[in-house]
């Protein structure tokens, strides 16, 4: 080896630098860093590293199978990144670092160019080994004796960001070693060789420790492909409707979708289903979770309503889109508006009897469409829609999740303050540059538009502008959206504006309108034996059928 940092961290090719991550004292992740040796031609001064990661989602209050990730880094002798690839369960991101930009290939295969802005380090969430390389290099250069400034490229945010460390002598006195504090709210301890041996994030109750000897490498480390066990869609047995896969002309990229055509004579009343946040396909499948939206649209097709559902960005047949790095809620609304226009263009659709069904964030999207003066809709259904400012809902979710994990009250309060600080920064209008925005908030720079546009599209304000009938549906065991703080607020706003609104609460149903025993948890979302409740489907189908009948033109 010729690089002194590599010599200090890795004793011979194949030597492993390992860390374990703990949340509130409970281990949830293991990460291995391996030096693979010189890269490229002999004497090129290039080095190759591999990083392996396992996360136990159950340990952090989530669900699903073990999360596995493999990453590769090629860098020069100063450990500046040249190429980086990160792969997790069938999805991959590739980065190539140029003089002043990063050429990125995202999971859908699309190419994007991102300004580098002087970043000479690459960091990714949960891969502490990348951070260990950065700090060891700075230690060897004597940069950590005072404030050290770095410009790092954050893979998760796909952007450059400032990163600073300062000595923390108060921590040294308490526990020994060389301690630093970072501007990303970390407490870091290095050994005499500059190797990171401990990282703490007090506001997250997370502690990451170096493990010696290293745990055995995971059994999958030589596997060529990491796959994800996704649920699959199949129409219900004995169904009478037809399924037609279609391509919708979206505003940025085409949207893959499916039309469910009922038995009978056209034109039919029709529904457009608008799903919640995140990437999910037309059937409501998101990763290992089956949200069950296909059950809803299929049920309505059996009742004589034509249905349209579509893949959101980055799922199914819909690409992420060239605007991926600047997407917000209005991006989602624009896609939904295009889907509605397509539905209206279908010759089988009765344009005077079109309904929107919005679930969770989709409820806000549905209201944004329905509140337009020329909406021309026959009705809007809101399933578990957020009825207050988005920061209030996010804070409640942080508090509830913290309680389930048993976090200390002070830790939960610190996390709540982080949400408030981020929302304030997103909505302040301040330029998103160092000095104006705290360094630790830069990771959320790409989502600040989503926050700002949610604050501008509040359901309890939009509903007052909707002229068509409204049905509000809410599960009593929903831990993401509250009957009192959200559904009832929407209903009250609609009634105050004199709107035609109906509200039904289902005491034993969760956010996905599936029945649950005891308290609802994220773990239950992964249970594929659970289905959308039949009583809920009856209430929804009956309301839509009655409204469709009332809106039907009289036959002479």
Low-confidence spans: pLDDT under 50, at least 5 residues? none
Indicate how many domains the architecture comprises: 3
Q: What structural class do you assign from the helix and strand content?
A: alpha+beta
The CATH class of the largest domain, by name, is Alpha Beta
CATH superfamily placement of the largest domain: Alpha/Beta hydrolase fold, catalytic domain
Q: Could you give a short account of the major beta sheet?
A: 15 strands, mixed
The strand order across the widest sheet is 8-7-6-5-4-3-2-1-15-14-13-12-11-10-9
What is the CATH topology assignment of the largest domain? Rossmann fold
Share of residues in helices: 25-40%
The end-to-end distance, rounded to whole angstroms, is: 90 Å
Q: What is the strand tally?
A: 25
Could you name the key traits of this structure?
single chain, 556 residues, alpha+beta, Rossmann fold, 3 domains, 15-stranded mixed beta sheet, eight-stranded mixed beta sheet
Task: Give an overview of the whole structure.
By secondary structure, this protein is an alpha+beta fold. The protein folds into three domains: 208 residues, no CATH class; 240 residues, Alpha/Beta hydrolase fold, catalytic domain (Rossmann fold, 3-Layer(aba) Sandwich); 52 residues, no CATH class. Helices cover 26% and strands 29% of the residues. The chain has 13 helices and 25 strands. The strands form three sheets. A 15-stranded mixed sheet has the order 8-7-6-5-4-3-2-1-15-14-13-12-11-10-9. It has an eight-stranded mixed sheet with strand order 16-17-21-18-22-23-24-25, sandwiched between helices. A two-stranded antiparallel sheet has the order 19-20. Helix 5 packs across helix 6 and helix 7 packs antiparallel against helix 8. The longest helix has 19 residues. The chain is elongated and about 80 Å long. The relative contact order is 0.09.
